[in-house]
Design goal:
alpha/beta; 49% helix; 6-stranded mixed sheet
């Protein structure tokens, strides 16, 4: 709903302040609806905005339907202390394609509980109960792979993430073996970007691109920073991240060849010491 209302507003080349003046819906309300932070969305606000954007009857009904759906709690509502205002689990649950580039660790959706626990414990910033809760939330996210039609997933992981021993040798062996097993699923592709690939377009850091089955839902990019997660959906932003992912995917070996690199790491005593 948030993205659809924003799309309709931008289609009419209206700034938030201009949109707020016309229908009598406060600027703060429109902003919170578009940013998916509104605690309650009133039907009259949706109607007022639909009138302003000259939405068709079909679009109006769809907006009201999306409003009703947004009030239904997903599993992540029980983990507000973990996710805060981060809508990533919501987007993952709707996505038909998930593309992830990761340079430091194995991607969260492909982690084992033990590896995830070691990642969360890094720096000893979180207490043990907070670590356990975050790990449970991360494991819940992986249930999207158990759907009848799971999202297609393409992950490109830097070689350094495989060689960085997190949690000790045994945890790392189990993680790499699990990663290989997940890549055997028909809807999951894993490529390892070797050191020899040199410079590439994703050197700025990890990111996720999510595509959705409804063509009216534009793709979004998710970029996690030290303080928050950013959801980007502007055409120029999406072009940049799509180009970056295409670059690392094209220079990384195929999944079978990436298996060979993963096996080399597993056999290397110095990497598993």
């Amino acid at each position: 709903m948030a993205r659809e209302l924003r799309r309709l507003r931008e289609a009419h080349r209206l700034k938030l302040a201009a949109a707020a003046k016309e229908p009598g819906v406060p600027l703060s309300t429109i902003s919170s609806i578009e940013n998916a932070t509104a605690r309650r969305v009133r039907a009259r606000d949706i109607d007022a905005l639909a009138d302003l954007y000259r939405a068709s009857e079909e679009e109006r009904k769809a907006l009201h339907g999306l409003t009703r759906e947004s009030t239904e709690s997903g599993w992540w509502s029980s983990y507000k202390d973990v996710f805060g205002g981060n809508a990533l689990p919501d987007f993952e649950a709707e996505a038909s394609l998930v593309r992830r580039f990761e340079g430091l660790t194995v991607p969260g959706l492909l982690q084992t509980p033990e590896y995830s626990t070691a990642v969360m414990r890094a720096g000893r910033v979180l207490g043990e109960s907070a670590v356990e809760r975050r790990v449970r939330a991360r494991m819940e996210r992986k249930n999207i792979f158990n759907r009848i039609k799971p999202p297609h997933t393409a992950a490109v992981i830097d070689e350094g993430a495989l060689r960085r021993v997190i949690g000790g040798p045994e945890v790392m062996r189990e993680q790499l073996t699990y990663l290989k097993n997940m890549a055997l699923r028909h809807h999951i592709g894993v490529q390892v970007l070797p050191y020899t690939a040199g410079a590439h377009l994703a050197l700025a850091g990890p990111f996720t691109i999510l595509d959705f089955p409804n063509p009216r839902d534009p793709p979004i990019a998710y970029v996690e920073t030290a303080v928050e997660g950013l959801h980007l959906d502007q055409p120029e932003e999406m072009e940049r991240y799509t180009l970056a992912f295409g670059n690392v995917q094209s220079v990384a070996p195929s999944t079978p060849l990436s298996f060979q690199l993963t096996d080399d790491v597993l056999r290397s005593p110095e990497d598993m010491a």
